[in-house]
From TrEMBL:
PROSITE patterns: G_PROTEIN_RECEP_F1_1, G_PROTEIN_RECEP_F1_2. It is found in: Cell membrane. Keywords: Cell membrane, Disulfide bond, G-protein coupled receptor, Glycoprotein, Lipoprotein, Membrane, Palmitate, Receptor, Transducer, Transmembrane, Transmembrane helix. One of its GO terms (molecular function) is tachykinin receptor activity. SUPFAM superfamilies: Family A G protein-coupled receptor-like. SMART domains: 7TM_GPCR_Srsx. The gene is TACR3. This is Neuromedin-K receptor.
Length: 465
């Protein structure tokens, strides 16, 4: 998540023989820039007669060069063949293009269509913004730094590069956590009012404030080191590699383990509730429709969370292993391992728009509208209706909500609509029992005791599809 030079081959010529100073592999992880791998690498260079003076300036033990060896000829060449560099460049370029453009389309779909402005979707906007920002401002810069082990972007961007990735990942994972908690409250305790628009904004603002505080040390201790032949961007911790390792373990717990634990618990309970059994008896179709809609949303968010967890797991494992077993930093293929794990972590930013499009009909309609200029994309009238505001129709029977017990006119939602409920649940029924009027009379008692998690006076079926 923060910028580090990856494994590159520094060669030192001494007496006509090329002495390999070792492969540099430094974890671009959750705010760690140099750490134990950097210390080991610098000591290796010092032993080769290159950094005997500069290593002490970085708080590392000074190692005197062998007097019989001439000064090393430092080179900054990348040892990978051109075809491999081209493949990696293509892979990272695809991630950045899909992540930035896809998440911007998601933001447009939600903010440009009033029907899409729900509690869940506001958190999805925050998630999409953080993913698009990290892909745009972090992924390519880190990739270039990993390829060349040379920092081209100046001191200010070095601080930003070390600071922002942790901030963005924190905002992403806790937006998912907020959605999980919101789904839990809506399904397990549906009679409680939903978050209002103001409360949703406060939660989102709090997430970013906490993210800034967690990442601030990365900005505070970021340094630029000008060396013979190259410039490095790294984080120089006051107490050295041990402090850096401790900080990164804390980051892993806060931006990976803890939120995934919370989401695992909440989605397990929600899953048992939604998939554990059907409404007994011959109940109305509206309840089955609402249950189906809730299942779709929960299924989509579970896939989003699992995708995030899978993508970031190898990256965190890479850092921990290379910090504990520092000899891995000199392994011949460590750079390929790093580039692969970093690519997988960054690719997490591009999957969400694809998941939304595949699993949610309203987002799918929004993507069709966004790409309607393509000759093979056709927007149907049904797709247009999907993004329009929910309409109310008068009817005498088969209603989802009855306005009053004495009135003959009831209110129903268009079957083609879903997800119009605004934050705060402004559409409310006046009677908790009224929602059962259209169900089978012989099963009304059993239905009323089991459907509290399916229907709520504060939420419509639109909120869940």
């Amino acid at each position: 998540m923060a910028s580090l030079p990856a494994a590159s081959n520094w060669t030192a010529g001494a007496g006509g023989a090329g002495a390999d100073a070792g492969h540099l592999s430094e974890a671009l992880t959750a705010g760690a820039t140099v750490g134990a791998a950097e210390a080991d690498w610098l000591q290796l260079l010092a032993q080769a007669g290159n950094l005997s003076a500069s290593s002490s300036t970085m708080g590392l033990p000074t190692t005197s060069p062998a007097p019989s060896q001439p000064r090393a000829n430092l080179t900054n060449q990348f040892v990978q063949p051109s075809w491999r560099i081209a493949l990696w460049s293509l892979a990272y370029g695809v991630v950045v293009a899909v992540a930035v453009f896809g998440n911007l389309v998601v933001i447009w779909i939600i903010l440009a269509h009033k029907r899409m402005r729900t509690v869940t979707n506001y958190f999805l906007v925050n998630l999409a913004f953080s993913d698009a920002s990290m892909a745009a401002f972090n992924t390519l810069v880190n990739f270039i730094y990993a390829l060349h082990s040379e920092w081209y972007f100046g001191a200010n961007y070095c601080r930003f590069q070390n600071f922002f990735p942790i901030t963005a990942v924190f905002a992403s994972i806790y937006s998912m956590t907020a959605i999980a908690v919101d789904r839990y409250m809506a399904i397990i305790d549906p009679l409680k009012p939903r978050l209002s628009a103001t409360a949703t904004k406060i939660v989102i603002g709090s997430i970013w404030i906490l993210a800034f505080l967690l990442a601030f040390p990365q900005c505070l201790y970021s340094k630029i080191k000008v060396m013979p032949g190259r410039t490095l961007c790294y984080v120089q911790w006051p107490e050295g590699p041990k402090q850096h390792f401790t900080y990164h373990i804390i980051v892993i717990i806060l931006v990976y383990c803890f939120p995934l634990l919370i989401m695992g618990i909440t989605y397990t309970i929600v899953g048992i509730t939604l998939w554990g059994g059907e409404i007994p008896g011959d109940t109305c179709d509206k309840y089955h429709e609402q249950l189906k809609a809730k299942r779709k949303v929960v299924k989509m968010m579970i896939i989003v969370v699992v995708t995030f967890a899978i993508c970031w797991l190898p990256y965190h494992i890479y850092f921990i292993l290379t910090a504990i077993y520092q000899q891995l930093n000199r392994w011949k293929y460590i750079q390929q391992v790093y580039l692969a794990s970093f690519w997988l972590a960054m690719s997490s930013t591009m999957y969400n728009p694809i998941i939304y499009c595949c699993l949610n009909k309203r987002f799918r309609a929004g993507f069709k509208r966004a790409f309607r200029w393509c000759p093979f994309i056709k927007v149907s009238s049904y797709d247009e209706l999907e993004l329009k505001t929910t309409r109310f129709h008068p009817t005498r029977q088969s209603s989802l909500y009855t306005v009053t017990r004495m009135e003959s006119m009831t209110v129903v939602f268009d079957p083609t609509d879903s997800d119009s409920a605004q934050p705060g649940g402004k559409k409310r029924a006046k009677s908790r029992d009224a929602s059962f009027h259209s169900c089978s009379g012989r099963n009304s008692k059993s239905a009323s005791t089991t459907s509290s998690f399916i229907s709520s006076p504060y939420t419509s079926v639109d909120e869940y599809s």
